[in-house]
Structures are given as C-alpha cells and as structure tokens.
Amino acid sequence: MKIILLGPPGTRKGTQAERIVKKYGIPHISTGDMFREAIAKGTELGRMAKGILDQGKFVPDKITIGLVKERLSKPDCKKGFILDGFPRTIPQAEALDKMIKLDKAVLLESSDDIIIKRLSSRRQCRKCNAIYGIDMPPKKKGVCDKCGGQLYQRDDDREEVIRKRLETYNKQTAPLIECYKKKGILAKINGQQTIEKIFEDVVEALI
C-alpha cells in the first residue's frame, strides 16, 4: 500500500501516520523528520534546511526529491509506505509519479484558526521528539511523559511562521489536491474531529 498524506501543517498528519504504520505495518516517511534529523546532526543539508524552514518556506524541490528517492529505494519500502510532507509541489508530484504508482492520497482538512491555535500550543521533546499539544498535553508541564526530556517550542511553530507556512501551503501544495482528485485517488477527511474519529475515516478511505 503506497499512500501520501496531504493537508496543511497542524492537521495531525504525523499522529495519523503513526496509527497507519501500526495497523498496516508499512514505514512512515516524513520529510520533516528527515530534515529535522539533519538539522540536529548539523550536516550541510541540515544547516541549509534550517535557514529555509525557520522562514516558513519549503526546502527546494531538487533537494527534497533526492532525499525521498534515496529513502524509497530502501528494502523496507518494497511492500509499501506512507509519505508525510511529500509531495508538496507539482514538480515533486511529477517526480514521485516517475518513482512509484500511488494507491491513495489522503487529505486532512482544517480551518486556519484551528491550525494556528493547535500549532502555536505544540511542544516537542528535545530527547525523543515526542509531540504534545491541546489534544495530548503532558502530565507535567514542560516535561516529556515518555522519557522525562525537556519540552520546547519549535521555531516553525511560532504564530508568525505558521501564517507564512499556511500561505506557502495554499500557494504551492493546494494545487496537488485537484491533481489527485482527477486521478481518482483522493480521499478528503475532516481533520477537525477527534484523533480517533479521523483515524476511523482514514481506515475507511483505505479499504
């Protein structure tokens, strides 16, 4: 099963991806996670990506496509995968079409107001990268439930950056919706529901 998750930032794509991975046993490939890992390691790609992402912009297509192509060539992707954060532009979608044949494009939808409220309250663990927010607050403020690590607000979760990210999404990624709709593989899901209800709808769409 080859799936992509579409939707603006803050629509719980990562949370739903984790549940899909557990149910279907396919790897979750997040370009955001790959870039954050590169940033944490201080690689050349990481330094380049940080400067771009901190401005609420997308990393150039050429770099992102190369990163994804290399990941999809790994043995664990032979039986399928779920792509989160890619493609984000028409050129990326065209490049992906040359690599594989998609089974389904799942679109999680939500209003800008809810996205801004959700993301600006989000905190991530410095140690294990666990994420907390309005729906899943930590038991102790500022402390990770899983490993006891310190929670912090990512630079790209500041309100002014979130608005730029949404603007970039609407300009560059939204056209993909029509593209996958025409191909007959688009499934629209209401991302303003509870996490459990969203997952129920996702599973139904994948049948």
For this structure, what is the CATH class?
Answer: Alpha Beta
Instruction: Please tell me what the overall shape is.
Output: globular
Strand content: 5-15%
CATH architecture: 3-Layer(aba) Sandwich
Order of helices and strands: EHEHHHEHEHEEEHEH
Tell me roughly what share of residues is in helical segments.
40-55%
Number of strands: 8
Contiguous low-pLDDT stretches (5 residues minimum) are none
Regarding quaternary structure, how should these chains be classified?
single chain
Mean pLDDT: 90
What's the number of domains?
1
Q: If helices are DSSP runs of H or I spanning 4 or more residues, what is the number of helices? A: 8
Structural class: alpha/beta
Give the distance, in angstroms, between the N- and C-terminal Cα atoms.
11 Å
CATH topology group:
Rossmann fold
CATH superfamily: P-loop containing nucleotide triphosphate hydrolases
Which strand order does the major sheet show?
2-3-1-4-8
> Biggest sheet: strands, sense, closure?
5 strands, parallel
Rounded to an integer in angstroms, the radius of gyration calculated over CA atoms is: 16 Å
Quick tags:
globular; 207 residues; Rossmann fold; alpha/beta; 8 strands; 5-stranded parallel sheet
In short:
It is built from eight helices and eight strands, in the order βαβαααβαβαβββαβα. It is of the alpha/beta class. The longest helix is centred in the C-terminal third of the chain and has 24 residues, at 159-182.
Word description of this protein:
With 207 residues, the chain is of the alpha/beta class. It has a single domain, classed as P-loop containing nucleotide triphosphate hydrolases (Rossmann fold, 3-Layer(aba) Sandwich). Helices cover 48% and strands 14% of the residues. Strands 2-3-1-4-8 form a 5-stranded parallel β-sheet, with helices on both faces. Strand 5 and strand 6 (131-132) form a beta hairpin. Helix 1 (13-24) packs across helix 8, helix 2 crosses helix 3 (44-53) and helix 4 (61-72) packs parallel to helix 5 (90-99). The chain is globular. The model has no long low-confidence stretch (mean pLDDT 90).
